[in-house]
Specification:
- InterPro entries: AAA+_ATPase (IPR003593), ABC_transporter-like_ATP-bd (IPR003439), Metal_Ion_Import_ABC (IPR050153), P-loop_NTPase (IPR027417).
- GO terms for molecular function: ATP binding; ATP hydrolysis activity.
- Belongs to the ABC transporter superfamily.
- Pfam families: ABC_tran (PF00005).
- By secondary structure, the protein is an alpha/beta fold.
- The chain has a single domain, classed as P-loop containing nucleotide triphosphate hydrolases (Rossmann fold, 3-Layer(aba) Sandwich), CATH 3.40.50.300.
- The chain is about 30% helix and about 30% strand.
- The chain has a 6-stranded mixed β-sheet with strand order 6-7-8-3-9-10, sandwiched between helices. It has a 4-stranded antiparallel β-sheet with strand order 2-1-4-5, covered by helices on one side.
- A hairpin with a 2-residue loop joins strand 1 and strand 2.
- Helix 5 crosses helix 6.
- The longest helix is centred in the last third of the chain and has 16 residues.
- The protein is globular.
- It starts with a strand and ends with a strand.
- The model has no long low-confidence stretch (mean pLDDT about 90).
- The structure holds adenosine-5'-triphosphate.
- The site of adenosine-5'-triphosphate has 12 residues, from strand 2 and helix 1.
Amino acid sequence: MPTVLQLSDVSFVRDGNTILDSVTWKVDSDERWVILGPNGAGKTTLLQIAAALVHPSSGKAEVLGDRLGTVDLFELRPRIGFASSAMAKRIPAHEKVIDVVMTAAYSVTGRWNESYEDIDLRRAQRVLAEWRLDHLAERTFGHLSDGEQKRVQIARAVMTDPELLLLDEPAASLDLGAREELLQLLGGYASAPDSPGIVMVTHHVEEIPLGFDSALLIADGGIVAAGPIAEVVTSQNLSTTFGLPIELSESNGRYAARAV
Ligand SMILES: Nc1ncnc2c1ncn2[C@@H]1O[C@H](COP(=O)(O)OP(=O)(O)OP(=O)(O)O)[C@@H](O)[C@H]1O
């Protein structure tokens, strides 16, 4: 399977602070990763390197086979789907949902003068249906619920058929029903044979969707453990990562954790 992300000894330093410290990690196109770690651990920074939005201070980062620093980012970025709350803030509140998704084909937020092809419209309609948003296609983004907005962001991220899909806390701030619906959709997408390599950042083991196979635990900018979820997501590793004794339970592939 092709490797979609390869970080070798990657560090990221800002204002004298080491935010990522010698991270070595590889994602193959058939892998679905979840990144877990406490606030400030460096998860978003790691995702931003994977999205080719920032460069490492040292070390080597290869995204979709190209080394950052040697590749045209305007050609690379459309091949990466990225959904985060920072990206969502750039979506104009008055934008229609169908346009939020369709503009992804042109790597812009906010419909302006691009001329859209029928094929883009049909694809956007199909993606909206897949993420159970078709009934909201004509609504304005700013008037959707948090759960609906999260699903629109993901629909936008998958619109271009990315080779790498990056999701930064897609279930944050959702109520129980909206979270479970999102996890079901994510799990279905992750399990489809033609889905891309996926990396999803979360704070909670409860948000690991079925269909995800690998986990990276990060604390203080360094990897605590990385590998198959069943081996990596353990009480001991979570206790080390979050810095307090944690008891983990698992039922039918879903996880729950609490302090002991
Ligand atoms: N450009 C930057 N300049 C200075 N400090 C930064 C920069 N980007 C991130 N940091 C700091 O690096 C640390 C890691 O940030 P990052 O957002 O990657 O963590 P995170 O694990 O995603 O956190 P959270 O779970 O709270 O979202 C934080 O202490 C943050 O303040």
